[in-house]
Design brief:
4-stranded mixed beta sheet; 11 strands; alpha+beta; about 230 residues; 5-stranded mixed beta sheet; about 30% helix
């Protein structure tokens, strides 16, 4: 519609130059379509972990943002990926708390009780690999968590980073409770991603299955599937 196009162009005109600034490049498609893993969220969590040196990084499994095609990455792309510039928050937690966290997240996404479903997609992670079976009853879904190829230790202490949600308790990072030594860094998720793109562009092969589900296709588009039993 010409009138809608005119109104849109008029509203965006003051921002065009800034939003078209190139901040990186990608060799591969960066997309956000799947329930369990996505190439775009792998990039974002890698950026958070690299920026802070944390053992693990967490991010929400968002649905929004069109895919970013191979080629330049602009400021507009970054705002599509992360519409909110969340301040980075770090802290420490134990392997036991992380296992409890994943069991809650599996129930949020794969519960057989519709009233217990929450969100829709699993959180994204960098620094660990997770294997689970979605058709088991909670809290028996988690099969394995590996860190650098070794099993997560229940009593060991690990550092974690995520974007801070205003109003969250001091002890909470992402939806991970009972964290200690928490602090806000003053840098944002945007700062971390921009720094990562500046160092590692062009981005290549960001899609890896960091979270694996038994008896489920690798590219899971919906949390609602016929259960084998």
């Amino acid at each position: 519609n010409p009138r809608v196009r005119e109104a849109t162009n008029r509203a965006l005109a003051p921002h065009r130059e800034r939003m078209n600034e190139v901040i990186g490049h990608t060799h591969d498609w960066l997309a956000r379509y799947a329930v369990i893993n996505t190439s775009l969220d792998n990039l974002i969590t890698d950026a958070l972990r690299h920026h802070t040196g944390a053992d693990f990084a967490l991010s929400n499994g968002f649905r929004f943002s069109p895919p970013t095609a191979p080629g330049p990455i602009t400021v507009a792309d970054l705002w599509n990926w992360l519409p909110l510039r969340l301040e980075l928050k770090t802290g420490r937690t134990t392997g036991k708390v992380f296992r409890q966290y994943w069991e809650r997240e599996f129930e949020n996404v794969f519960s057989q009780d519709p009233e217990r479903l929450f969100g829709g997609w699993l959180p994204r992670v960098s620094g660990m690999s997770v294997r689970f079976n979605r058709i088991e009853d909670p809290p028996q879904r988690l099969r394995e968590i590996l860190v650098a190829g070794e099993p997560l230790q229940p009593t060991a202490s690990y550092s974690v980073v995520a974007g801070h949600r205003r109003g969250a308790p001091d002890h909470r990072i992402h939806r991970l409770d009972h964290c200690t030594h928490t602090r806000l860094l003053g840098h944002t998720t945007h700062d971390a991603v921009r720094a990562y793109l500046a160092r590692f562009s062009p981005i290549r092969s960001t899609y890896t299955q960091r979270v694996r589900c038994q008896a489920t296709p690798a590219a899971l588009r919906s949390q609602f599937l016929d259960l084998p039993h």
